[in-house]
Write a structure and sequence with these properties.
The protein has 5 helices and 6 strands. By secondary structure, the chain is an alpha/beta fold. It has a single domain, classed as NAD(P)-binding Rossmann-like Domain (Rossmann fold, 3-Layer(aba) Sandwich).
Length: 130
Amino acid sequence: MKVLIMGCSRVGAHLASLLETDGHEVTVLDVDPSGFGKLSHTFRGNALLGDGTDEDSLRRAGIEQMDAFVALTEADNTNIMAAQIAKSVFNVAKVVCRVYDPTREELYRELGLDTVCPTALIAASVKKRL
């Protein structure tokens, strides 16, 4: 599977490593080149500077050949916009979007986006442990 990850945070870099270990082709896209330092020293995929809400940047990253797109920046609005572009403009088969705000997560799920809300996941995990 060919996967484009937008956002080279700790989560993005770790996901890139996990996917690559499983044999997938991974490209990481970020607006800040310092994020690429989080990638494993064994990372063999592509690390590209660019904005995942910009169609030209997405094309340079090869989105038209991707099987999956993951939006993992720290900004909900950026993630949501990029996910919608990947899904609606480029018809990427699998699109996953990180959304920190639980209220927004529900709304965007209703709009057909596959979302992950770390805020809700962590709160539920802590509640369970209590």
